[in-house]
What we know:
The chain is mostly helical. It has helices spanning 24-38, 49-56, 60-72, 114-130, 139-146, 150-162, 181-202, 208-224, 230-244, 251-259, 262-273, 282-295, 299-325; strands spanning 46-47, 76-78, 84-86, 135-137, 167-168, 174-176, 336-338. It contains 13 helices and seven strands.
Amino acid sequence: MAAQSDQSDEQSAGPKVSGTGPRLYEQAHDIIAAQIASGALAPGTHLSETRVADRFGISRPPARQALVQLADEGLLRKADGRGYYVREDVRQKGVNADARPSVLGEQKLRSLPGWERIYESAESEIVQRAMIDDWRIIEAEMARHYGVSRTVARDVLARLQQAGVVNKDERSRWYAPALTATNVSELYELRAILEPEALAKAAQQVPSDFLDQMRSNLLDALARGHTSDWALLDRLEDEMHGQLLSYCGSKAMRQAIRLHQSLLIAHRFLYRNTAAMFETEPFLAEHLLIVDHLLSGDVAAAQSSLRAHLLGSGNRAMVRIDHIVSRYHPADLPFLEKL
C-alpha cells in the first residue's frame, strides 16, 4: 500500500535521496550526455575535470565523477594526457556535423547553497583518508582551502556528522575516525540490528510497484555480469538501505539508521577502486533475495536475509579497505592532520 503522510517528518514518510534531488555529478553528467546526444559537443571535443568544474561552478571531485561515468557509458574516451574526448563513434541524430559547436552549452546546475557546493568534495576527501588513519579536521583551514566562510565549513562538518562520517571529541574538535576492523564490525553489527526492524515496518507501507522496480533494476545489473559502474552500484545501495527503509514511517528510526550508514558513503570510493575483486558484485543477488521475500509476503525471511547481507557486507568491506590501504597514498590536505 502507499506510504502514509507524516507532517512532522518533512511532509512525507516516503523515500528521500540525499534530501535535495540529484547529486552534483549526476546533474553535470545528464547535461553533458544530452549535449553529446544533440551534437552540441562534437566528437573529438576535449573535456577536462577543470573545464567541467569551472563551467558548472562545482568542485573537481563531482566533475571527475561525471566524466568517469560518461566514459563508462561509452560516450567519452580517455585522453593520452589529462581529460577525455567525446568519442568519434557516438551517433547523433539530425545534426549537421559541419555546424556542430564544440563548447559546453549554457545549461546551469540548479542553484545551490554554499555548503552543498563543497560537500561532495569534502566528503570524498575525508572518507578516503579515513580508510588509512584517524584525522583531526581544522575548520578554519577547511574554509580557507575551499574558499568559503567558516560558517559554510561548519555547516558541511555538521552534515557530515549527521551522516556518521565525522564527530567531535571532548574538547569539541572535529575528527574523522579511522575505518578500522573494529569500527567497521561495530557499524555493521548495529546496522544488522536496526535495519531489519525498519524493514518490517517499511514492508507494511512500501508500494508494490517500488519493489517491482527494485527487482527490475537488480536483474538488469546482474545481467551485465561484471560491472565497473560504481555510480549504478551506489544507486542500488541507496534503493535498499535508503529509499526502501525510509518507508518505515519512523523519523527517529531513520535518523538512527543514517547515523550508522557511513560505510555506504565509503562504498562509493570502494566500488570505484575495487571493481576487479569480484566477478559479479555480491550484494546484487543478496538484495534480490530480500526483495523477492518482500514481494512474496515473507517479511521474516526478508529480515533474516537483510541481516545476513549486512554481516557479509561488513566482511567484504574490510577486504576492500585492506586492498586499498596497501595501494592508496593520498596527497596531504591543509585541513586534515593525522591523530
